[in-house]
Amino acid sequence: MIKTSLAFLTLLAALLATGAAQAACIYPRAPDNIPDGRTATMDQMVAAQKAVKQFDADIAAYNACLTMELEAMMADPGIDEARKAELAEMQVKKNNAAVDEAQAVADRFNEQVRAFKEANPK
User: Which of the chain's termini has less CB crowding within 10 Å, N or C?
Assistant: First the structure.
């Protein structure tokens, strides 16, 4: 996942350096390895925590890309104001959807952390 993030950031930097008007903002994939807290090992929970944190960072990078993409489109004199308003609205919806998914992933993980703590009292 770290290699994916580094590749994404490298691509993003290259697009910005070349003055690309529309960066290809790639929606990150949510982690699919959140274990059942009732049966998981500590190592599995730690790995899931790292995956959730990486996903959160990837969502932040995605949203930053959306912002830069929107700013580039807003600077285009060939786009009329009505279209700019539509683009801004779409960016808000994409951002909100990404934040909602990141929160849902964090909520699922936190639920499993609680289950893990119940199954493994100190």
Answer: C
Count other C-beta atoms under 10 Å from residue 62's C-beta: 20
Q: Is 70 helix (H, G, I), strand (E, B) or coil?
A: helix
What are the pLDDT digits (tens) for 41-59? 999 999 999 999 999 999 9
Q: How many domains does the chain have?
A: 1
Domain that holds residue 14: 2-119
Number of neighbouring beta carbons within 10 Å of residue 26 = 15
Q: How far apart are CA 62 and CA 95, in angstroms?
A: 8
Q: What tens digit of pLDDT does each residue of 61-120 get?
A: 999 999 999 999 999 999 999 999 999 999 999 999 999 999 999 999 999 999 999 999
